Amino acid sequence: MRSVSRRQFLGSSSLATVAGFLSANALSVGTSPQPAPSSVPQRTDDVRLAGRVWKTLKLYMVQVEGSLTDKFRAAKAAGFEAIEMDAPGMDVAATKLAIAESGLPVDGTVNSTHWRMRHTDPDPEVRRQARESLETAIRDTHAVGGHSVLLVAGRGDDGTEDECWQRARDNIALSIPLAARFGVQILIENVWNHFMYDHAGDHRQSAEKYARFVDELNSPWVGMQFDIGNHWKYGDTGDWIRQLGRRVCKLDIKGFSRASDRFTRISEGDIDYGDVRRALQEINFYGWCAAEVGGGDQDELARVAREIDDALGLA
Question: Structure pTM?
Fold first, then answer.
């Protein structure tokens, strides 16, 4: 089977498609012989996440002509409730203007240099640059009202697992005080980076290493932006969510097919979204879900928004 890399997937026009921890979840189970409709237990396939999950998307997906404000307006008209920017590199003044003119907030950013300047790099100078980039992203995210920075922790081929683990953990930890000062979470994403899982392994792997990595950073300002599609190849998505639990602060979403070993539209592939919904309810998740697919014009973005609604039961 042919694997499609994350970079190939996100750049492919043929696939141009596709916070908080609040409140308590209560499913009431009726005991009356003739229960009222509100007390009838939900079938597992009926779990819906409306009121728990809000839709956002990556800026690159908005492929419409015009200004940044025009892009924000198109995303909002398509049904998205926020947008994620890239930082460093974001024009803070232009972004604040686009927010004001469109009414669409920025919920967070993606660290734009984390593949090139890695926290696992054996060179201390590169690790210093990675930390500087992350801290710029934290400041810029705060400046535009966002609350999180998505971060790839590094690459597993930068050394042994123990070396990469220690470098990434220690380097990221240096930025936690700044994250706390500005109220911006550092969210580790599960990606195809050969780190914290076995890239050559099968689909029965555990999320235990991700959980342990976050726990070793030991801060409410560090969690995970869990990508629903990225690790369906390597583990059961619902079980990973259950294992990660409170560490899941945000979501990314894309489709994946184990049968064809490739990424797909959100509405295609073979991810068990019913179990994903159940798992998110079980961990009492409330937060943002970011589309991370090919994107397109406003009509295509609206289609992606509807696919998220269907997958997560938001409509």
Answer: 0.86
Q: What confidence tens digit (pLDDT) does each residue in 124-158 have?
A: 999 999 999 999 999 999 999 999 999 999 999 99
Domain residue limits at 154: 6-21+51-312
In the 3-class helix/strand/coil scheme, how is 115-159 assigned residue by residue? CCCCCCCCCHHHHHHHHHHHHHHHHHHHHCCCCEEEECCCCHHHC
Q: What CATH number did the domain enclosing 161 receive?
A: 3.20.20.150
Does any domain span residue 32?
no
* Structural domain total, the chain: 1
H helix and E strand count, the chain:
10, 10
Q: What is the pLDDT of residues 175-233, one digit of tens each?
A: 999 999 999 999 999 999 999 999 999 999 999 999 999 999 999 999 999 999 999 99
- How big is the chain by its Cα radius of gyration, in Å? 19
Q: Do the Cβ atoms of 253 and 19 come closer than 8 Å?
A: no
Q: Residue 46 domain-assigned? A: no
Helices 68-77/298-312 angle, 10° precision: 40
34 in any annotated domain = no
Q: Looking at the domain assignment, is residue 33 inside a domain? A: no
CB-facing half-sphere around the CA of 106: CA atoms within 13 A: 34
Is omega for the bond preceding 88 within 30 degrees of 0, making it cis?
yes
**From its phi and psi, is residue 82 left (phi > 0), alpha (psi between -120 and 50) or beta?**
beta
Please state, in angstroms and rounded to a whole number, the distance separating the CA atoms of residues 200 and 188: 21
